[in-house]
């Protein structure tokens, strides 16, 4: 019986090691946005609750999925993923009003900056949407959504939320 265990041990170790390393999206670049994963209460800059957000990994860590529920009834979801073909992070946001926002950009240490393509506006000729997520010293995450002119100058803040982990 002991000989059987010794014979099977290399196979068991090989299968175990293979299972641990068989994750296409578990490398460092795919983990750049992991600071946002969790269960959150979102407050505005005055400390008033604006919503709840649940952010999790799906598809073997290849997608970060956000489920948003605002206190005024708005809901939405975003799919966030790293595209190896062009080395960019991407977000596709869709809400219960039918609004769609597509963003692309790059991650940094404890920060993610994603921007839309140039959009034609009504009150502004051309503009970009830019959303920045930053980790704060206290472990919260700030999400800043800005409208930029075609030169990249901030014109308006559309959303400023501070994500606090639920306990």
Tell me about this structure.
It is globular and about 50 Å long. β8 and β9 form a beta hairpin. The protein has one helix at residues 2-21; strands at residues 38-43, 49-58, 63-70, 75-83, 88-95, 100-108, 111-115, 119-120, 126-135, 141-149, 154-165. The protein has one domain (27-165): Lipocalin (Beta Barrel), CATH 2.40.128.20. It is 12% helix and 53% strand.
Structural class: mainly beta
Tally of distinct domains: 1
Task: Output the CATH homologous superfamily.
Answer: Calycin beta-barrel core domain
Give me the Rg, rounded: 20 Å
Strand content: over 45%
The coarse overall form would be globular
Mean residue pLDDT: 91
- At the third CATH level, what is the topology name? Lipocalin
- Please write the string of helix (H) and strand (E) elements: HEEEEEEEEEEE
User: Quaternary arrangement of the chains shown?
Assistant: single chain
Key features of this structure:
globular, Lipocalin, 167 residues, 53% strand, mainly beta, ten-stranded antiparallel beta barrel, single chain
Give a brief description.
The chain is mostly beta strands and 167 residues long. The chain contains one helix and eleven strands, in the order H-E-E-E-E-E-E-E-E-E-E-E.
What's the arrangement of secondary structure elements?
Blueprint (H helix, E strand, L loop, with lengths): L1 H20 L16 E6 L5 E10 L4 E8 L4 E9 L4 E8 L4 E9 L2 E5 L3 E2 L5 E10 L5 E9 L4 E12 L2
Antiparallel strand pairs: 1-2, 1-11, 2-3, 3-4, 4-5, 5-6, 6-7, 7-9, 8-9, 9-10, 10-11
